[in-house]
Specification:
Blueprint lengths: L21 H15 L7 H30 L1 H5 L3 E6 L5 H9 L3 E14 L2 E10 L10 E2 L16 E6 H7 L6 E4 L2 E11 L13 E5 H7 L9 E7 L6 H11 L6 E4 L5 H39 L1 H9 L4 H39 L12 H28 L2 H5 L15 H17 L4 H31 L6 H11 L5 H36 L3 E6 L4 H9 L7 E14 L2 E2 L16 E5 L8 E5 L13 E5 H6 L7 E6 L2 E12 L11 E3 L10 E6 L6 H11 L4 E4 H40 L1 H13 L4 H38 L8 H28 L2 H7 L1
Parallel strand pairs: 3-8, 5-7, 14-19, 16-18
Antiparallel strand pairs: 1-9, 1-10, 2-3, 2-6, 2-9, 4-7, 5-8, 6-7, 11-20, 11-21, 12-13, 12-14, 12-17, 12-20, 15-18, 16-19, 17-18
Helix pairs in contact: 1-10, 2-8, 2-10, 2-11, 2-20, 8-11, 8-16, 8-20, 10-11, 11-13, 13-14, 14-15, 14-16, 14-22, 15-22, 16-20, 16-22, 16-23, 20-23, 21-23, 22-23
Length: 861
């Protein structure tokens, strides 16, 4: 058969043929649809890879949007009002409180602090919350057995009431109706909190919630000059008033106050930032799985096109153009991709329904279970673009292979090449994929870093795969036949060595990185920190108590060093005269957000290393020119140097100090380090409390805890051991979650591996049949294939361990400023996973080959 003279089958139309008239597309779709009637054999890996990646991205986006939507919807209940005005250490003045009342419909008042509760000869640090009789302005507090909250905190029969979380009752071994000691007064527990509408969400709380009436706080004696108390004023706006209008009036009348102001637009900024960062990370993991799965998609398409060589040859023989062939298989792949994307979207849409009940017990907001359309659209776009990036090369190469070669048995796509003029066709979806990655990310820098790291990782593993091929060629000669066969399979034409090394290696690298970071942080907390850490941090010691406090501690046996330092709270309001609100956000934005602990000293703290400037003289006491020492990392973040100025608001008064020096601080030492240390003379005139640390053996912790609790009820004792254990528990939970998430990329890699084995199944069967015909035993063939896959898995695991360890070192040392230690057990795991995965896949493929009868295969070939 021959084509018309006007259409030479060897002459390729331009890439614009993809956009040919509708009737050409209709013909291509008819042929594609008829071929698809044969089923999806060979495309299950394609579907699984695409559904896994798209499903992860859609699920993460939907859950994130559900939580963020709940934060926005329930912002008033979560904040406690339309606006929250917070001040540290002292309540608002009567004039200020009158201003709040005049400018609002309702005003609620809350005071929060850490305190120690006592009961049954036990003590427990609590997060104390004192509320007025209007609490809560919005939302509802839920108590066990649906007990009513109204009036439950009132004073009855000489006892103030209180409600607490169940953990406090368990620790003190008390029940509802019993009393506990709080400072100088007794509190009767009248209910158990099950849900608190405005509970602050954080990773590390030092104790359970105890809630009392605001007047009861005054009776406890816990509030004295220098006590760390946060006063919150919750504003319910008048009808017709707006947040912006209220804040403008407040700024006009009280511009110099050091208040921290939040509104419903940022009711829980910490949780919002965490959700956004977690969403970004999980989305990038999903994209990693999609990219790894893309290799499986490419392998599936390549295998499918190679299996259709006779069909393509027949179509070309009856006059089909290269463009028509391209359209036929493009439509086939697109139809199957849409099916995979729909499966992924279905998984993503189900995610909020599965997660919402779990989050209901963890968050004080109602998370809706409805899928978010923007998240589904973004996931769809990722799926389509990834499909195009990984399938177009095979489709374009197939179009260019001559018809004569397509008729040749065993010919594949190796000889086909993509034309230079077709490169823009390949570049467009790739560029769009990169743009979508950056545009959909909440942090552009992290997204760009991910793209750079992905390119580097792909390049490294492609190079590693080629190194395996090159080395296997060198060692092929001079060995027994089955060893030569194993090595030859690693570098034969059409080998999957590079594809398996790349896909499985990326997933294993992610696992090594996360496991190494988690392992090093655990090592830091469990092993290194306790060696130098004090046993206790004591908070809120009054200056008139410190001598007796030290004497009581020293009276106990085996008490080591006792260190003390004054502490105040202040809010940074300006740097070099620039308002803190006008300074662009950065990595150390926390320094400007909220109030910070600060101290004063005549001499540098022990272990201080001055990097710039000089410490002030020991007798410096100039109240007219206060000086401050900053940590070097803060100085670098805000481009500060000695001679610059810093303004802090302490108890409503702005204090501007000149930066005298910058110093290095080892935060991991658990010493009493402060970002800001002031010179004496001015700031020491403000009311302050003292904090202290004490070293002692573990067997003395309980007696000391009881002694301090008895003699100093206002002092809060934090056991460092318990705090480290709590931090370690949180870290372990995060590590498990991240490792589980990274396993998605490993699953994608295993799918690619399974696809590679399936794609080479026909050749494996033929090779096994020939070998059996020549006298090889099953053991010989199993040895050859086990050696091949063993080398592939071991080399992939070793490279992943090396690259993952390097990535963990970079994150720990360069980003987090922590130390890094090689953890052999952490590195060995991924190596074993890679070895087991490849050997398992190879065994399954080999077993199928060994079971195939020889005669039919030799006859057909």
């Amino acid at each position: 058969m021959a084509s018309s003279s006007s259409q030479n089958p060897r002459t390729s139309p331009s890439s614009a043929a993809v956009f040919s008239p509708p009737n050409q597309w209709a013909m291509a779709w008819r042929v594609a649809r008829r071929e698809l009637r044969g089923g999806l054999r060979g495309f299950w890996i394609f579907l699984a890879c695409l559904a896994l990646g798209v499903g992860t991205i859609a699920a993460v986006g939907n859950v994130s949007q559900s939580v963020l939507g709940a934060l926005e919807r329930d912002g008033r209940a979560l904040l406690g009002g339309d606006i929250e005005i917070q001040q540290v250490n002292m309540p608002a003045s009567p004039d200020q409180q009158s201003w709040f009342t005049d400018n609002a419909q309702r005003v609620g008042q809350i005071a929060t602090l850490r305190a120690t509760a006592y009961g049954n000869d036990q003590r427990r640090l609590v997060e104390l919350k004192a509320v007025d009789d209007q609490y809560p302005l919005f939302g509802q507090i839920q108590l066990q057995n649906d007990a009513p909250f109204a009036g439950i905190l009132a004073k009855k029969d000489g006892l103030w009431g209180g409600v607490a979380e169940a953990g406090l009752l368990e620790r003190l071994n008390i029940k509802v109706g019993d009393t506990l000691k709080l400072g100088d007064t007794d509190i009767q527990i009248r209910g158990v909190i099950t849900k608190e509408p405005d509970k602050a969400i954080g990773f590390l709380n030092f104790g359970p919630r105890l809630m009392v009436a605001l007047p009861a706080l005054a009776d406890t004696g816990l509030v004295v000059p220098g006590s760390l108390v946060h006063y919150h004023y919750l504003i319910d706006l008048k009808n017709g008033d707006t947040i912006n209008a209220f804040r403008t009036r407040l700024d006009d009348d009280y511009a110099s106050e050091g208040w921290r102001i939040r509104d419903t637009n940022n009711a829980s900024p910490g949780l919002k930032r965490f959700i956004e960062r977690l969403t970004l990370f999980l989305t990038l993991v999903g994209l990693s799985a999609l990219l790894v799965g893309g290799i499986g998609v490419a392998n599936a398409v390549r295998s499918h096109v190679e299996s259709k060589t006779s069909v393509i040859a027949t179509l070309k023989s009856i006059g089909a153009t290269h463009g028509l062939v391209l359209r036929i298989y493009f439509l086939q792949i697109l139809a199957i991709a849409i099916l995979g994307i729909v499966i992924g979207l279905f998984i993503g849409a189900l995610a909020p329904m599965l997660v919402a009940p779990i989050l209901a017990d963890k968050l004080p907001i109602a998370v809706t279970a409805a899928p978010a359309m923007p998240s589904l659209i973004i996931a769809t776009a990722f799926g389509i673009l990834t499909t195009l990036v990984f399938t177009l090369p095979s489709l374009l190469r197939a179009r260019e292979i001559p018809a004569a070669r397509l008729f040749r048995s065993g010919a594949g796509l190796n000889g086909g090449a993509v034309r230079r003029k077709d490169l823009p066709v390949l570049a467009v979806p790739l560029v769009l994929l990169l743009i979508l990655t950056v545009a959909s990310a909440t942090d552009t820098a992290i997204a760009l870093g991910f793209i750079g790291a992905s390119i580097a990782a792909i390049a490294i593993f492609v190079l590693a795969g080629r190194v395996v091929i090159s080395v296997s060629k060198r060692f092929t000669h001079g060995r027994n036949a089955f060893t030569r066969l194993a090595l030859a399979n690693l570098h034969r034409p059409g080998t999957s060595t590079v594809a398996v090394t790349l896909s499985l290696g990326l997933g294993l690298t992610l696992l090594v990185t996360i496991a190494s970071i988690e392992g090093n942080l655990n090592h830091e907390i469990q092993d290194r920190l306790p060696e130098s850490a004090p046993a206790f941090f004591f908070l809120d010691i009054r200056p008139d108590q410190i001598d007796q406090f030290r004497s009581d501690l020293k009276s106990q046996p085996d008490i080591g060093d006792i260190e003390q330092t004054p502490m105040l709270r202040g809010r940074v309001v300006a740097l070099n005269g620039v308002n803190a609100n006008d300074i662009p956000p950065g990595d150390d934005r926390w320094f400007l957000r909220g109030d910070r602990g600060l101290t004063f000293a005549t001499t540098p703290p022990e272990g201080t290393v001055i990097t710039q400037g000089n410490w002030w003289p020991d007798d410096y006491n100039d109240a007219s020119k206060p000086l401050v020492s900053l940590t070097a990392d803060i100085g670098a973040s805000f481009n500060l140097k000695p001679g610059d100025t810093l303004t802090v608001n302490v108890l409503g008064r702005d204090i501007t100090a000149e930066i005298a020096n910058l110093r290095e601080v080892d935060w991991q030492s658990l010493r009493m380090n402060f970002a800001m240390v002031f010179s004496p003379g001015l700031i020491d005139k403000a009311p302050y409390s003292l904090i202290a640390t004490a070293h002692m053996p573990p067997n003395m912790e309980e007696p000391v805890d009881r002694l301090i609790g008895k003699d100093f009820p206002n002092v809060s004792a934090i056991r460092v051991r318990e705090a480290l254990e709590a931090a370690n528990t949180i870290l372990a939970g995060i590590g498990i979650a991240l490792s589980a998430t990274s396993s998605i990329a490993i699953i994608a890699g295993v799918l690619v591996l399974a696809g590679a084995v399936a794609a080479g199944r026909r050749k494996r069967i033929y090779d096994a049949v020939v070998l059996k015909t020549l006298g090889a035993t099953r053991a010989n063939i199993l040895y050859a294939y086990a050696l091949e896959y063993g080398i592939l898995g071991l080399s992939t695991g070793l490279i992943a361990a090396l690259f993952g360890s390097a990535a963990a070192w970079a994150v720990l040392v360069l980003v987090m400023g922590a130390s890094w230690t090689l953890l052999p057990a952490t590195v060995l795991g991924p190596i074993l996973i890679g070895l087991i995965a490849t050997l398992s896949a190879g065994f399954i493929g080999t077993w199928q080959a060994l079971r195939s009868p020889a005669a039919p295969i030799l006859r057909n070939e």
